[in-house]
Structure formats: C-alpha cells, structure tokens
Amino acid sequence: AQSVAQPEDQVNVAEGNPLTVKCTYSVSGNPYLFWYVQYPNRGLQFLLKYITGDNLVKGSYGFEAEFNKSQTSFHLKKPSALVSDSALYFCAVRDTGFQKLVFGTGTRLLVSP
Amino acid sequence: NAGVTQTPKFQVLKTGQSMTLQCAQDMNHEYMSWYRQDPGMGLRLIHYSVGAGITDQGEVPNGYNVSRSTTEDFPLRLLSAAPSQTSVYFCASSYYISGGPAEQFFGPGTRLTVL
Questions:
Q1: Which candidate in A10, A70, B35, B61 could, as Cys together with A108 as Cys, close a disulfide (CB 3.0–4.6 Å)?
Q2: pLDDT score of B39 more than 90
Q3: Which residues on A lie below 8 Å from B106 (Cβ)?
Q4: Band of residue A36 on the pLDDT scale cut at 50, 70, 90
C-alpha cells in the first residue's frame, strides 16, 4: 500500500523568512514523489519531483525539496518566502510500478508581508 | 499547445440527472486521470486510463463511468447525480515512467453542484 501525509493544515511565515512544508510517505518499494501548488480557483501546477539521484531536488519558483529515505520524508523548502507563494500545496507519491498517484490532504501556506 | 482542457467550468445539476464532463489533452500523453477535490480530503482518484481503450478504477469510482476511445479525450460520466458528488473535478494527463505516471498536467477544473 502507498500513502502520504501532510501533518500541517496551515503554515504561516513572514515574507523573507525560510519556509518548510512537511510531507511523509509510505511505500513498499522505491517512491516517486511530487509536489504541486494550487492557486485559488485554479488547477494544480507541478513544482518538482524525486525519482532517483540527488536527495536535494530543485524545482520551479525557487522551491526545493529534500528526500530523506530513513525518515520517509520529502519536505518542501524555500530559502526566502514571497507573499505570492501563498497557496495550497500538495505532496503526492506512488510506488514503483504502481499506476495510481496518492495525494496528501494539502497544506495552506500563508506568507505575511 | 493548449495542454489539458476541461468543459464545462461550472455546472449545476438536480439529483438524478446525468451529465458528461469533457477532458482533452494535446500532449500525446498515454496516462489520463480524473480526480475530485473536496475540502480537507485532498485529491481522490476516480478513474484512470493508461491508453486508448484501457481504463481502470481509482479510489472513489462509484457513480462514475469513463471511456477512452482516443489518446486525446477522456470524458467522465455521472450516471445519476447525487448531492455527495458536489465537488471540484480535475482531469490530468502525463507520460509514463517506470510503470506509472510521471508528473501530471492538470486541467482548470469543473465545479459541480448537485441540488
């Protein structure tokens, strides 16, 4: 079975400060991990993915994520938050050979000026 | 290159009515899927397809039908609408990697209300 958890419903951060949005997962084999962002009344946009290789993955809009196999985590990070980063963020995972993607429940990021 | 398109954007149905949500992609992706998004529940997979003529059930398939006659189109049919199907519906497509979908491209969504 495959599952993913986003333990925080909301993360608040001041503009210019670093941000972290947490994600943990559970799979039987090797994980394929994804982060998406959703702005109000829009579809989801792909940010970054981990398939294999370097544990630190860089993506769109200055975001990065760190794959940690021992802690089964894939936290999303950004060194300096912008007000425009305020949105809903989803982590997703699938196991090797699985044809279904499982999404977390989402974390709302609020960046204050 | 339009990406993934969905129609309609908004729809109101009465209980028991049927309708089809349209989805099309122009990226020649093999994999297409339908999700519903409900507050506090994230995205849940309804049905997916790994190619023309091949479909399978996701997490919440009851009350929905799909077919895939072409690579481009993947319509979702509500057979007899119920208030529990009030939701935002997203179609997505992707290429294949290691036996499953790669990063998915999402349509803008259809907001459905069933009275």
A1: A10
A2: no
A3: 36, 43-45
A4: very high
| Rounded (5°) CA angle B28-A49-B94 | 15
Whose tokens are 């993955």? That residue is: A57
Whether A58 and A66 have beta carbons less than 8 Å apart is answered as no
Structure tokens at A74: 């894939």
Query: For the residues B15-27, what does the mean pLDDT come to?
Result: 97
Nearest residue to B88 (alpha-carbon basis) of B60, B59, B112: B112
In this prediction, residue A109 carries a pLDDT of: 97
Whether pLDDT at A99 is above 90: no
10 Å Cβ neighbour count for A13? 19
Answer yes or no: is pLDDT of A67 > 90: yes
Instruction: Name the minimum distance, in Å, from the CA of A52 to any CA of chain B.
Output: 11
- A32: closest CA of chain B, how far (Å): 8
CB atoms inside a 10 Å sphere around CB A68: 12
How many helices, marked H, and strands, marked E, lie in chain B? 0, 13
Distance CA B26, CA B28 (A): 6
Residues from B in contact with A at Cβ < 8 Å: 4, 31, 33, 35, 40-45, 48, 50, 56, 58-59, 90, 92, 97-109
Q: Can you tell me the distance from the alpha carbon of B21 to that of B19, in angstroms, rounded to the nearest whole number?
A: 7
